[in-house]
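Ticket #4471: structure output looks truncated?

Reporter: J.K.
Steps to reproduce: submitted the chain below (214 residues) through the standard prediction queue, then opened the result file.
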Amino acid sequence: MQDIIVITNQLGSFMTNCYTVYNSATREAVIIDPAANARFISNMLVSQQLNCVAVLLTHGHIDHMEALPELLNLIGHKVPVYASASEAEVLNDPRKNLSAMLTDQVVTLKPDVLLEDGQTIELLGTRIQCILVPGHTQGGMCYYLEENQMLFSGDTLFARSIGRSDFPTGDGDLLIRMIRERLLVLPDAVTVYPGHNERTTIEREKVSNPFLAG
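Returned output as attached by the reporter:
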């Protein structure tokens, strides 16, 4: 099993969790949801002597990708951006990605790699399973590192809560059903790294999440 380390930084006005996930042996890293402050993220990569090999987006809302264009320029080499194929419309629509509502400039994005539900990608010397969980947005993607028992859930599943469903392409009933069918079936010991607030576990959410009881 690879020794995978997670650095969490809460960035931007919405205190979004930006995760730097890296292999301690190779120093290869992926950034999950570059929320804001591209220079901070870039400086951290340099100070930790990390080589960013990919950016993974959990979904298309601006508070999870605002730093991305500047960050790619600062890194200085080609870094592919991965996102759900089902989220392409949200990423490319300023109204649906909320940039038209929450920022002074509209943002559109076309990922380099569009992912399908159930697809497995190999990064950091390990396998990352892509789990599509629509409901917060139509193409919310969770990333599961089975060997390391880690799940990056974006704004789908939080500690004792779930994502909002009142934004464009959201569906609350679908979100709850998909969390139950696709996330709560993972091993209890899996650590959940959400898009906001503190980490949790699958077991804890089965027991204590009021949105998922019953």
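Triage note (M.O.): checked the attachment and the full token line is present. The chain is about 20% helix and 30% strand.
Status: closed, working as intended.
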